[in-house]
Amino acid sequence: MSDSLFNTPLQIINIGIGDFAETLRQQDVPVVEVEWQPPAGGDANLVEILKQTDGSRELAEKIDAANQEAVERILASQPRVVDVAPAAQALGLAGRIILHAGPPISWERMCGPQKRAVLGAIRFEGWAGDNESAEALVESAQVTLSPNHRYRAVGPMTGIISPSMPVLVVQNETFGNYGFSTFNEGRGNTLWFGICDDATLERLRWMRDTLAPAVKAALHHGGPLNVFDIVAQGLQMGDECHARSAASTSLLVKTLMPPMLDAGVSSRTVADIIRFMANNNHFFLNFTMAAVKATMDAANGIPDSTLVTAMSRNGVDFMLRVSGLGDEWVVAPVSPMDEAVYYTGYSVADAAGDIGDSAIIETCGLGGMAIAGAPTIAAFVGGTLADEIAAVEQLRLITVAAHQKFSLPAMNSANTPLGIDLRRVVESRIVPFITTGVLHETSPTVGQIGTGVARVPVALFERALAALAHQWGLATSLPRPESVKLEPVKVASA
Amino acid sequence: MSDSLFNTPLQIINIGIGDFAETLRQQDVPVVEVEWQPPAGGDANLVEILKQTDGSRELAEKIDAANQEAVERILASQPRVVDVAPAAQALGLAGRIILHAGPPISWERMCGPQKRAVLGAIRFEGWAGDNESAEALVESAQVTLSPNHRYRAVGPMTGIISPSMPVLVVQNETFGNYGFSTFNEGRGNTLWFGICDDATLERLRWMRDTLAPAVKAALHHGGPLNVFDIVAQGLQMGDECHARSAASTSLLVKTLMPPMLDAGVSSRTVADIIRFMANNNHFFLNFTMAAVKATMDAANGIPDSTLVTAMSRNGVDFMLRVSGLGDEWVVAPVSPMDEAVYYTGYSVADAAGDIGDSAIIETCGLGGMAIAGAPTIAAFVGGTLADEIAAVEQLRLITVAAHQKFSLPAMNSANTPLGIDLRRVVESRIVPFITTGVLHETSPTVGQIGTGVARVPVALFERALAALAHQWGLATSLPRPESVKLEPVKVASA
Q1: CATH of domain A3-76+301-485
Q2: Are A253 and B255 within 8 A, CB to CB?
Q3: pLDDT greater than 90 at residue A18
Q4: Is the pLDDT of residue B21 over 80?
């Protein structure tokens, strides 16, 4: 095994002796509990590939060097919000197209909330007046569907982006590349939760006509906004910046409002925007997502790297991007949402599958990787801060570095695990988890029904490793897995 | 010993076996370490009083009931900022008077920073044009000095309040009583740090002429501000609300600005105020102080109660108020600031003594009592979150309750220790500590030179117990200690 596995101090690693771990946990000692399993689940083909890619072999050294390069690019990235613009202009969308979270999917296979959000976006664009005629447009291919990631964009939950929606334009100043996300809609009846009624459309219009120009004016007047500065502070204030962005949203208010006022935005509008942000603790989530997208794209496409650079789900399928595979993503069915904490009256039987582009956050040392930063969501992983700390320590077993800018106050300022190495995941069967919400599959009015963690399917890491094995020319009886090519569309303006 | 000592779960209490504690601490297990000492330091007189006031004796039952009443009043309190007004009007100040933090003190004995702040305030009021003539006014008694607490007010550090300074008017809606504090001046050359130059005066004028009317307008338009709602959220975001109010200040921005804009305050002023608050992480401190003052005053004056209702220092003397002694405060010299973390180039030799009315915060389950809420100040008590948790657990040994509204995310949402019982302090020699700053004694330009904890002198608790013993008519050879009577001045308007 690579030395880099152990580049950060562990507390206690407990393999297969549950009682001892339980005792320690009762005493609030962080415990990393690893149930003993044969490497790679005992799969001889995978074990053989792992042997070739580990230790002091030439290939292993190439991989480690590539992963090091990927980590350095992540740490060197400086994502800043530089502008706000309509998606059509910023992403270069032409014609009637609706973007969505997750891998490409046919209308027939799309999950309930994402379908409902697509129809809502078509009504928002004015291409149809009701859901029936909107659906007819999709079914007759007069509206096309495409993943956000193809356009360097990301959206939370259903993740719908339509051409006239405003997007945050984030530039990675170090490498020049861009990332995009919509504004977060907040609570209640919203597209991101798979609901669209008149209030949803009215809120979307307010975001387009009032919120977006005001934020644009603030950025033009005050200059680019350093997203990771706010994220780093948010981690000191109870956010892990995926399921919880309460503190970072507050920090954004005090950063953004003075230049917005200076730029001449009316008092009434600024007051409304502060109230909107004060009522939406997820407001900063989309800033984080676009910044992480711009960061992780800069670390993608490094030959031989086994680090994960994006994870994305549409409620049905989960796609994973690995740096060494470039724009070839591997795909597998999403995991069931059976670990979530459901609101009263709901259960996994009501749940849409794991959904959203937001899982890219976990590839950058945030969200699940930083869960000990948010003691208020300890229920996600066992109920106590000690459980959260143990979870972070376990994630160190599948990561190769730590994010120097992101630290965890409850772990004496230890930096968060960074750089998911699929070799370690395949070997240990420890998969990353995502801090996320759960949507109702069938109801057009309920929206969110729970929160909790979703596990990334281990099959994705196995497939990515098999694909790399073929790329490296290793002898293996594993077939080259199918993949999805998502070459980003080039945009002149960005 | 009273059962109430153990009304909250302890982790591990370690008496006198340092090695074992060290081992546990290395594993992040919270450890309460109590060096064994004879009760009351072996003082036979104190031991005899404690015997009479403990266990199942009639007096002990009266005390416990009185303490229960005090705790109930604290928990029932609803302090809200209802207005902003000039100190002269709100506090009923007549003529040339300067209020200061801590117990009454003569000009000759006053510490350096407080003297310099008094002179600055005289210049701010326009009663003198320079420090020499200002000092002449004090020395000739043409300006009088008085403690803030006499006027139901509190001020941080030097704590100077002069008649034209605006104060936050906090009303305890449950009991009707009021508490007052100035606005926090922020960093740099400021009266609260014992510095006064032209920039200091200019800032004070801006606070009086621009900040105060704007906050007043926001309160009149938006209604009273619930201080403890923000404090409770701040504790979830890394504040302990004495040495650190960064999160609560951010939360205040998003609460206060919409009504301020709605009230018609100009965009430029609102932008300036947000910038001022964004540059001053202590801005919310004075809100907390005034709210705690209005809360603890409501719990004062309960016959037989041994709970501490205020602590206050002027850099030379420390005064302590106990509910059962009403407006009779006991006084002792302040402790040396030898536990503080000094900025480079400074040491305890440069330090003014422990100073400020802000120590009232610790009587209400905040500050030192909540230190595990602020992992970023772990250096104050040993360097790690585990040290902070151990410190809070130790404070449970001298408190009788927990504050139901204030909880600590790093301690699985345990409530903070509340209700310092002087019997437990005298018996155990464990004294409360205050999270505070340190000022330069002699320099007129340096200001703050460190941060850390200050211990409350144990002599104060001994004196208060002796005073109560005389009040109870117990046979004791201890003399009745001298005390300071600070009957609050009645104010018609508030």
Answers
A1: 3.90.1700.10
A2: no
A3: no
A4: no
- Kindly list the domain boundaries of chain B, sorted by start residue: 3-75+301-485, 79-289
User: 10 Å Cβ neighbour count for B477?
Assistant: 7
| pLDDT one-digit tens code per residue, B289-347 | 999 999 999 999 999 999 999 999 999 999 999 999 999 999 999 999 999 999 999 99
Q: Which two tokens stand for residue B480?
A: 């009745």
In 3D space, the residue among A176, A346, A193, A207 whose CA is nearest the CA of residue A269 turns out to be A207
Supply the DSSP symbol for B11.
S
CA dist A418 and A413 (Å) reads: 15
- Selecting from B12, B271, B412 the residue whose C-beta is nearest the C-beta of A258 gives B271
C-alpha closest to that of B120 among B354, B448, B444, B443:
B444
Cα distance between residue B462 and residue B330, in whole Å: 10
Q: Check residue B16 and give its pLDDT.
A: 43
Q: What is the mean pLDDT of residues B178-191?
A: 97
Q: Which stretches of A186-298 are assigned E, i.e. beta strand?
A: 225-226
Within 8 A by CB and 6+ apart from A87, the residues are: A93, A99, A153, A161, A162, A163, A164, A165, A166, A167, A180, A182
Among candidate residues A77, A134, A61, A147, the one with its CA nearest the CA of residue A363: A77
Instruction: Give pLDDT tens digits for A415-468.
Output: 999 999 999 999 999 999 999 999 999 999 999 999 999 999 999 999 999 999
Alpha-carbon distance B28 to nearest alpha carbon in chain A (angstroms): 6
pLDDT at B443 over 90: yes
pLDDT in tens, B91-144: 999 999 999 999 999 999 999 999 999 999 999 999 999 999 999 999 999 999
Selected for mutation to probe chain B from A274, A275, A277, A413 (highest B CB count within 10 Å) is A274
CB A247 within 8 A of CB B247: yes
Tell which CATH architecture fits domain A79-289. Alpha-Beta Complex (3.90)
Angle between helices A385-395 and A18-26 (to 10 degrees): 130
Give residue-wise pLDDT tens across range A228-242.
Answer: 999 999 999 999 999
Count of CB atoms within 10 A of residue B51's CB?
Answer: 13
User: Scanning every residue of chain A, which has its alpha carbon at the shortest distance from the alpha carbon of B252?
Assistant: A250
Whether chain A has a CB inside 8 Å of the CB on B13: the answer is no
3-class DSSP state of B169: strand
Indicate yes or no: CB of B251 within 8 angstroms of CB of A254: no
Identity of the amino acid at A160:
I
Name the token pair of B414.
């345990």
Using CB atoms, pick whichever of A237, A250, A262 lies closest to residue B271: A262
Q: Is A79-289 in the same CATH topology as A3-76+301-485?
A: no
Q: Which long-range contacts (CB under 8 A, 24 or more apart) does B386-392 make?
A: B386/B25, B386/B28, B386/B29, B386/B30, B386/B31, B387/B25, B389/B11, B389/B30, B390/B11, B390/B25, B390/B30, B390/B31, B390/B32, B390/B33, B391/B433, B392/B416, B392/B417
Q: Do B412 and A258 touch (CB under 8 A)?
A: no
Nearest to B262 among A271, A410, A412 (CB): A271
Which tokens belong to B377? 């100040």
Taking only residues 366 to 405 of chain B, the set having a beta carbon closer than 8 angstroms to any beta carbon of chain A reads: 375-376, 378, 383-385
In angstroms, the CA B297 to CA B178 distance is 9
Buried b / exposed e across B249-258, counting CB within 10 Å, b at 16+? bbbbbbbbbb
CATH number of B3-75+301-485: 3.90.1700.10
A186-196 confidence digits (pLDDT tens): 999 999 999 99
Looking at every residue in chain A, the average pLDDT score rounds to 93
Window from A18-27, B52-61, B100-109, B182-191 with minimum mean pLDDT: A18-27
pLDDT digits (tens, 9 = 90+) for A50-75: 999 987 789 999 999 999 999 999 99
